[in-house]
Amino acid sequence: MKKKSPLYTIIAIAIAIGYYFINNSSKSTEPTSEETTTSVSKSSKENNADVKKTTKTINTATTSSSKPFNFLPSSTTNQVVKHDYYTLSYSEKHEQAEWVAYELTRNQLSTSKHKRPYFTTDTKVKTKSAEWWNYKDSGYSKGHLCPAGDRKFSKKAHDDTFLTSNISPQKHDFNAGIWNRLEQKTRYWANKYDKLYVITGGVLEDNLQTIGDEKVSVPTHFYKILLDYTQPEVKAIAFLLPHKESNKPLYEFVVSIDMIEQITGIDFFPALPDGMEKIMEQSDSYKKWSFR
After folding, report:
1. Residue 15: which domain range?
2. Is the pLDDT of residue 48 over 50?
3. From CA 169, how far away is CA 55, in angstroms rounded?
4. Which of 15, 36, 64 is the last residue of a domain?
5. Total domains present in the chain
């Protein structure tokens, strides 16, 4: 057999070494299949996380706007009457509402002037609401629970407040004084905070003084509860006013919602999450509300 030349052997070795280095160099600059998969997977997870966050925010916003918040209190009388612009729970025993509830928004505030209608009975009250003449010569004013001043945005809304189911006997100086101040302050807050849920009533209990043939009860105290359910700072405030005129500042009559629940037996804002309801109803602080 003929021997190979040493020169050919050297050339073959050199080619093999060169190929080895070129091949290894090419491998080191490209990620392995495992590295590529890991990188894509990580990127995909990050993108998915961003998508989930965005979706969650959108869904929350959609839910809060498309599903109205149920702000109605419980009823101890089992006679809840819904009107177009407010809802009430009527007490036949006391011939008036134990509470009237409605939403008051900035857009609803108006200075329009409407002709004052006569008071009429509420035909939606199945036990029949008290007649207006119970108040005649009684020495008491027909005190609105849902004020006509909160419903000036349309004539119908305004006139619907002149139902006898929406009034309670009030001393004139109380009605025109501190009660009127609280109603004006409520409209101020609705304008400032955009939207409020308002609940108003007299404290109805046994052995109250009455007026008229139908024995309409005269409360010794009146309350008003306001809820600002606008995120992120949800807040509530409650007032309990003795039925007499006072020149004291309104914040001196701030109490906890719990206190009003205890004396009325009504559960306010039962649809709130339990944790939020507990915190808000125990508080008697007014620091989150603008008094001026």
Report:
1. 6-64
2. no
3. 52
4. 64
5. 2
Confidence label for 106 from pLDDT (cuts 50, 70 and 90): very high
- Cα–Cα distance, 80 to 89 (Å, whole number): 4
Q: Is the pLDDT of residue 69 over 80?
A: no
DSSP the chain: -PPPPHHHHHHHHHHHHHHHHHHHHHHHHS--HHHHHHHHHHHHHHHHHHHHHHHHHHHHHHHHHHS--------SSS-EEE-SS-EEEEETTTTEEEEEEEEEEGGG------PPPPPB--TT-TT-PPPGGGGTTSS-EEEESS-GGG-TTSHHHHHTT-BGGGEEEE-HHHHHTHHHHHHHHHHHHHHHHSEEEEEEEE---TT--EETTTTEE--SEEEEEEEE--SS--EEEEEEEESS---S-GGGGEE-HHHHHHHH-----TTS-HHHHHHHHH----TTS---
Both 22 and 97 in a single domain?
no
Residue 274 pLDDT? 80
Domain membership flag for residue 288:
no
Task: Find out whether 241 and 223 touch, Cβ atoms under 8 Å.
Answer: yes
